[in-house]
Amino acid sequence: MSLKAVRKLAAGLLGPDGVVEDPAGLRSYSCDGLTGWRATPGLVVLPTTTEEVSSIVAACHKHSVPFVARGSGTGLSGGALPATDGVLIVTSRMRRILEIDPDNRIAVVEPGVTNASVSVAAAPFGLYYAPDPSSQIVCSIGGNVAENSGGAHCLKYGFTTNHVLGVEVVLPDGTVTTLGGMTTETPGYDLRAVFVGSEGILGITTKVMLRLLPKAEAVRTFVADFASPEEAGEAVTAIIAAGIVPSAVEMMDHLAIQASEAATSAGYSLEAGAALIVELDGPRGDCEAEFARSVELCKQAKASKIRVAAGEAERQLIWKGRKAAFAAAGRLSPSYYVQDGVIPRTALGRVLRRISELSEAESILVANVFHAGDGNLHPLVLYNPAVSGEGERAERLASQIVAICVEEGGSITGEHGVGVDKACSMPKMFSEHDLATMKKVRDAFDPAGLANPGKLFPTPRLCGETPGPYRPHPTELAGVAERF
Amino acid sequence: MTTAPTEPLRPKDTAELSKLLAGMYASATPVEVRGGNTKAWGHHSAHATALDTTGISGIVEHSAADQTVRVGCGTRFSDLQAQLASAGQRVALDPPDRGGTATVGGVLASGDHGPLRQRYGAGRELVIGATFVLADGTVAKSGGQVIKNVAGLDLAKLLCGSLGTLGILSEVVLRVHPLPQASATLTMKADAELATAAALTAGRSVAEPCAIEWDGEAMLFGFEGAAEGMAMRAEGLKADLQAAGLGAGDLGELSPAAAETAWGRLARSREAPAGGICIRMAALPSRLAELSAAAQKAAEIAGAEVALFSHAGLGLTDVVATANEGGSVEELLSQLRRLCSKVATSVVVRDRGWQGEPEIDLWGPRPDAASVMAAVKRSLDPKGILAPGRFAPWW
Fold this sequence. Notes:
The structure holds two protein chains of two kinds. Chain A has helices at 2-14, 23-27, 50-63, 115-122, 141-147, 154-157, 191-195, 229-241, 254-264, 284-300, 312-323, 325-328, 348-362, 390-407, 426-429, 432-445, 460-463, 474-477, and strands at residues 19-20, 43-45, 67-70, 87-90, 97-101, 106-109, 127-128, 164-170, 176-180, 204-211, 213-214, 218-226, 248-253, 274-282, 305-308, 335-338, 366-371, 376-383. By secondary structure, chain A is of the alpha+beta class. Among the domains of chain A are: 97-214, Uridine Diphospho-n-acetylenolpyruvylglucosamine Reductase, domain 3 (2-Layer Sandwich); 218-327, Alpha-Beta Plaits (2-Layer Sandwich); 333-407, Alpha-Beta Plaits, CATH 3.30.70.2740. Chain A has a seven-stranded antiparallel beta sheet, sandwiched between helices. A five-stranded antiparallel beta sheet of chain A has the order 5-6-10-8-9. A four-stranded mixed beta sheet of chain A has the order 1-2-4-3, with helices on one face. Chain A starts with a helix and ends in a 7-residue tail after the last helix. In chain B, strand 11 (211-214) and strand 12 (218-225) form a beta hairpin. Chain B has helices spanning 14-26, 77-85, 104-110, 117-120, 123-126, 155-159, 192-203, 230-243, 256-269, 288-302, 329-339, 370-380; strands at 31-34, 49-52, 59-63, 68-72, 89-90, 127-133, 139-143, 168-175, 177-178, 182-189, 211-214, 218-225, 252-253, 277-283, 304-311, 316-323, 344-352. Chain B is 30% helix and 24% strand. Chain B folds into three domains: 1-179 and 365-395, Uridine Diphospho-n-acetylenolpyruvylglucosamine Reductase, domain 3; 182-267, Alpha-Beta Plaits, CATH 3.30.70; 270-352, Alpha-Beta Plaits, CATH 3.30.70. Chains A and B meet through strand 9, helix 7, helix 8, helix 10 and helix 16 of A and strand 7, helix 6, strand 9, helix 8 and strand 14 of B.
C-alpha cells in the first residue's frame, strides 16, 4: 500500500521517463557490479533534480518505504542491491557539470556525472580529478562518494574523502542540507567525513564539490620482473624506505600475468614470477630523480628485467594489461570471486604463503593482483560452477583469505565497500561496541533505518547469530533473489 | 551542583579513561578533555571537571615500512615528530608549536594545522584509525592500521575538529610520510591584490609548492622533494608567475636558516596575543583581497589593530587582532561578519588571549547542517556531559 503512494507521487512528479514499473524494466536494475546478489526493486525512479530526490525521499519517509540510491551500478559489494519492497533512486540522469572554477580548483557536479568526465572537463585548465577507480569511464561521482572510491593512484593522492570539499545531500527524511561546502573549512562537525564512504545509509548525494589538482608535469612508468611476489614486495619496501612515495605500485603474480597477457598482449613477461608496475609523477626534476632511484632499487632487489615505458602509448598499454587482469581471469576459469582485503604491506610474503597453502588444500587456483604500495589484495579465486562442490570450496577459500587479512591487522575491504557482500564479515574486524557506535551515528541521520537497509551492518536476518559461511539471503529463500 | 576538583583527572590508559567517564556519565557530571591545554577553543564551562589525557602517552607501534604509527593521544606532538624523525619519517602536519605542549589528540580534535595542509591536508587526511571513548565509557574504534580501508563509518575523521564533544580520542593510527630529501623557501613582497593572484597561480603550478602563505606583506612558497628537482621547481614557479603577469621580479630564495626563522615566525603569529583574538575566515582563495580590505575597514570601525596571516592557497585567513584604547574585538568580529557575509563562508573565533568565558558570539550564523550535527551529538552523548555548550548556541 505504502509503496503505491510513492509510486503515485513519482509518476506525477517525474513523468513516464522518470519511473520504471514494468517487470522487465525493474529486473534490469536487480543487481550492481556484484552480480551474485539480485533483488528486483519495487519501484525505480530516475529524478533529475535535488527537489525531485527530496520529494521522493520525503514520501518514502512518510510512508515508511525503504529506499536505495544507485549511480552507474558498478559497485562490487552490492551496495546498490535494491530492496524488493522499496524504491531504487537512480541518479544517472543527474549528470550536469555545474561549474569548473579553475582559479580555485573546484568542480561542482551532479551525482550522476562519471568520474572520468570530471577530469575531461578540467583538462583544458591543466587540472584533473585525482581518484581514479578502474571503472572510472562509467562509475558515477555519487557512487564514488558513497563508496569512498580509491584507485590505482591513491597511495600518493588519497581517496574520494580527501578530494570532496562538500556534498549537498538529501537526508533520510527528505531534508536537503550541505555537509562541508565550497571552502576548505566549514565550522561544526565534519559530517562530510562520515558521509563519504557511508554506502548510502545516511542519505543521498545530490551535488558534489570536488577539489581539482594540477596535472603532474611528468609521469614515468616501469615494469620490473621478479622471481616471486615476495621478492617484488622487498623491492617495494626498499623504494618506500628510500623516502619515495610513488603515485602507484601494482603487482601481478605469475597466474595473473598469464591471464592478462592472454587477453591484452601488453608485453608482460610470461616467465616472471611477479610483475611490479611502478609509476612516479610530479615536477619533472623530482620525477626523473625518483624514477632513476626506483629503477636502481629494483635492480638491487634482483629484478630480472626492467621495462621502461618509452612514451604515453606504452604506458597506457602497461596499464591496460594491469586493469584487464580481472576480466582476463575469465580466460583461466569460467567464474571467480574477487576479494578486496588489505594487509599491512610488509606482511605480504607471509600472507601469500598462507593463501598458496589454502589454495592447494582446497584445490582451487588463486591469481593475485595487488595494489602493492598500500597492501590492498585482490585475489581472484577461480572456480568452475559446473563442477560439483567447487563453488563452495572457492567461497570458503575466499572467506578464509578475508579472515587472514583481519588477523594480520588489515581490513576486510580496501576499496569495494562492505555493502551486502561483507556485512557479515564486519564482526571479524569490529567489536559489538564499535558497530553500536557507528549505528548511533546512523541513527542520528536515519532513525527509521530506511536508507539502504541491510547494508554495511551485519543483521541477524542476513547473517544469523554468528558470522559464518554462506547461507541464503532471505530474499533468495523467498524466491525473489538468486545468487550465482 | 558539583564543583570541579582542582586537580584534573589523569587516566593512564584507555581502560582507566573508560572507567572514569562511565562514572561521570552515571552522575551526569560535565567533563572537559584537554591535552597540552594550548587550544581552549569554543565555549567552556566553569563547572566541568577537567580530564587530562597526557597520561595516555607514547608510541605504541611505528611500522616505518608500512608508513603507519600507532600512538597514545596524550603524547606530545613534538615528541612524536622527534621520534619519527629518527627513522626518517614524520606526520605531514605542521601545526603551530604553541609552547611545545600540544598533544596528538589535541591537534586532531581541534583540527589545528599549518602551511603543509596545502599538500597533505589536515589531520583528518592523515588519521587512518582511532580508539576513542564515548561519554558513557564505551570504548570504540573505527578504521584500522592500514592506509587503505573502507570498512565501516569513518568516525576517526568525524572526531577531528569536534573539540572533545563527541568522544575522547585515546589512541590513533596515523599515516606517516618520509622526511623530504630537500626543501626550499621562496618569498616575494606582495600586497593583497598581488597575493591573491600569486596564490591562485601557485596553486595551479606544476612546480607543486607544498605551502602557499601570505603574511600581509609577502608571499612565502614552500617546496619539498628530491634535491635534484628544487632548482627546477623554483624556476618553474617564477616562470608561471611571470606568465601570469605578476612580475615575480623580486622572487628570491631564503637561506635555510632564514627560511626556518620565517616559517617559525609565521606559525607564532597566529597565536592570539594577550587580550587579543585570532579569527579564522574561510573563503575561496580568489577572495583574499576582498577579505583583506574588509579586515582593514572593520579594524578602523572597531578601533582595533589587525594583522592578516593567510593560508592563501587554501583560502583560510586568520585575523589576529588587539583592541586599541576604546576599541573592541567584539565589534571587530561583528564588523567582519557584516562586511564579509558575501565573501567568507564562515568567520569564527579560534584562539583568544584571555582566560574565562567570552561574552562573544564565537561561531556566527548557524549553518543548515547544524540540526544533523546536533543529532549526532545527542546520539553519541545523550546526557551532553562532554564539553557542554562548546558549540553554543548551535547545540
